[in-house]
Amino acid sequence: MPKLGKVGSDHALGVLTDESCVGPTWSVALPGPLPRLFSYCVPDGARPAPGVRIRVPFGRGQRVGVLWAPVLAEPGLALKCIDSQLDATPLLDTALLDCIAWAASYYHYPLGEAVLAAFPPALRKGGLLSRPGLRLTETGGEALLAEAVRGSRQRQLLQMLSAHPPGVAESELTQFAHAVRQSVLVKEWVERVALPLATGSFQNPAVEPASPKPLNAAQQSAVAAVAADWARFQVWLLDGVTGSGKTEVYLSLIEQVTSAGKQVLVLVPEIALTPQLVARFAAHLRVALVVLHSGLSDSDRLQGWIAAQSGTALVVIGTRSAAFQPFANLGLVIVDEEHDPSLKQNEGFGFHARDVAIWRARSLNIPIILGSATPALESLRNLQLNRYRGLSLPERAGGARLPVISPVDVRGQRMSGGLSVTLIEAVEQHLLAGGQVLLYLNRRGYAPSLLCHACGWVAACLHCDAFMTWHRQSHLLKCHHCGHERAVPSSCPDCQTTLSPRGLGTEQLEDVLAGLFPDFGIERLDRDVLGRKGELDRRLARIRSGAARLIVGTQILVKGHDFPEVSLVGVVDADQGLFANDFRGSERFAQQLIQVAGRAGRADRLGTVLVQTHHPDHPGLNLLLRRGYGFFAAQLLQERLEAGLPPMRSSALIRADGPDAAPPQGLLETMANGLSTDEWVGLSVWGPVEAPLARRAGRFRYQLLLLAEDRGLLHDALNHLDEWIGTRRLSGVRWSIDVDPLDMA
Ligand code: ADP
Ligand code: ZN
Ligand code: ZN
């Protein structure tokens, strides 16, 4: 037996006195920037296992880490001993540990940091899954019966414990003085125990139960195809137009899996934006369901995590961080809106939740379904190569028809507040016919900049190469890149002339509409609204009740809301998306356009979508509007293949920034030169170039794009850079690797 001290105030399972420690050596994953594991010795007789959390001495402090694997001790090397083991059994199984190891290496991120992604914040900090408690011993029970307990407080304590045979948490015994608890312990009337944290206290959201709709033929065949092949890894791409009933397909499959006692993971881009989706799941599925996202309190996240990890929850709906959620018995993964870029984390651990989920499904040999009306080009490519199998829902469910999308040529038209006469007339017509109207403009605030018409002064961010957006309601100029805010000057700081807004934001559009249609309620949905708690729900409720007839919003509108009364969607400024500055721009634009158009005409009304543009002859726009996303995407994919761009070749973006321009630029230039030698044939090195936003928050930003057909070669190059940079001093320069980058800004 190891020498176990008393359970300490740090609530450890056992505090070990380390002078006696001569046990085996283990590698340990610890948070920190170093991509390596650390060796510690584990006391003899402890029960170490991969995936168990431990607390270890590190530097002058302590860190919480995860036991990784037993390793051979290096002779003569004195190792520190772990301080305490936090879990009696591993919380992460070896399949998940393997996945984390893969993701850390694939995304070039330190393993010790990556492993944290699998834990909720409370467990990262070293919180325990058990609570220390006290339990009555046999001797204590006898003493109580024999009325041998003198002190009345001691007797009360023993009586309380005898009413709870498994034990009572110490935190619930604080009414008994320390001395009282101590004396019954010394007399061995009471012993210490570790009590499990309360679990299963989560509740399904309160909703009216709903019965499933009978599936139509396309839905049935999609369900049948997946159900014919349960016990095997397969990626299914469910390509279903907006309103085709993908959710019903998910629900039907989930019912089959959960009734076999297995768990289902549903990954969605942003839960906070789509409370409806969770409500639909909860209404249909009569099984324990948890929702996991970063907006929850630490304790709710912990409860949800335990429920999924222990197998109590059968369905987990989560945002990208749930890709690393441990499960007891996972049987199916669903990734909804698989094209959505918010499934990929852009900073720090730059993993793509869809791709991590595919890895896990493969290792567990279970099916995974990627659903979208506008699949990512990566997924379409994998379908072409027969790596994925396709499921298609080409028509809307329930007899609804797809909207008709038409461009509105605004050249030469008189515009009021960004709206053409054509669009204004259409809005009026739909409002009078009792429909709802949704106007999409992907810019929040009142105006994207504030300008002096007399001298040309523009409100620019002091820290970024960007204009500041004028937020009229909050009387602020805000930088959307670094978050800097300042008061709005009352006149031009240079010449004192009155300033005028330039460009159009959602706040202004709301004002314009209020002026044009004073008799109809308006709701605005953008990220400024999300900042206020409960505000999104209130606004969505006013939209659904019909109190609001006009809806103005940014991308938030694109995210799968079901507004059955919307008959007209207006895209206020399509030109913004037509000429984006990176190669993913057109794909992103088409996805957003089709998704927002999909909000129109979902029930029995035919929807109309009007797209304002100065470029009605733009070939891409025409192809998209006339032939649909499928054709458009196929052509875009062909162009990418010919240009050698992803998904034809794998890519990684190296970013560097610093307080001065020369050092980050120089660093990337050295890297580019080093990778442009004969040794790296097959690797394309583009750049370095200034980032599209060349200065952000006072730092000058550069980037270097690496492309290779051979993924292995690309990763060799990245490993080489990692090693090389380890030997250099980087004064003030930060750098990072983004594998499969989606956001090139
Ligand atoms: P998607 O997720 O593909 O956009 P949804 O699952 O939200 O589509 O379905 C769109 C609408 O069609 C919903 O109102 C849904 O209730 C309805 N619906 C789905 N399947 C059917 C069906 N088989 N019969 C009738 N209505 C259906
Ligand atoms: Zn001026
Ligand atoms: Zn800024």
How far do the termini sit from each other?
57 Å
Q: Total helix count? A: 22
Mean pLDDT, all residues: 89
Derived from helix and strand composition plus strand pairing, the structural class reads: alpha/beta
Identify the strand order in the major beta sheet: 11-12-10-13-14-9-15
For the biggest sheet, the summary is: 7 strands, parallel
- Alpha carbon gyration radius: 30 Å
Unreliable segments of 5+ consecutive residues: 1-18
Total number of beta strands:
32
Descriptive key words:
about 750 residues; alpha/beta; 7-stranded parallel sheet; 22 helices; globular; disordered N terminus; binds adenosine-5'-diphosphate; binds zinc ion
What layout of secondary structure does this protein have?
Elements: E1 25-29, E2 38-41, E3 53-58, E4 61-71, E5 84-85, H1 94-106, H2 111-114, H3 121-124, E6 130-136, H4 138-145, H5 152-162, E7 168-169, H6 178-186, E8 190-196, H7 217-227, E9 234-240, H8 246-259, E10 263-267, H9 275-284, E11 289-292, H10 298-310, E12 315-318, E13 330-336, H11 353-364, E14 367-372, H12 377-384, E15 388-393, E16 404-409, E17 415-416, E18 419-420, H13 421-432, E19 436-440, E20 449-451, E21 469-471, E22 476-478, E23 485-487, E24 500-502, H14 506-516, E25 521-525, H15 527-530, H16 535-545, E26 548-553, E27 566-571, H17 575-578, H18 585-597, E28 608-613, H19 619-627, H20 629-643, E29 650-658, H21 662-674, E30 683-696, E31 699-708, H22 711-725, E32 734-739
Bound molecules: adenosine-5'-diphosphate and zinc ion (ZN) (2 copies).
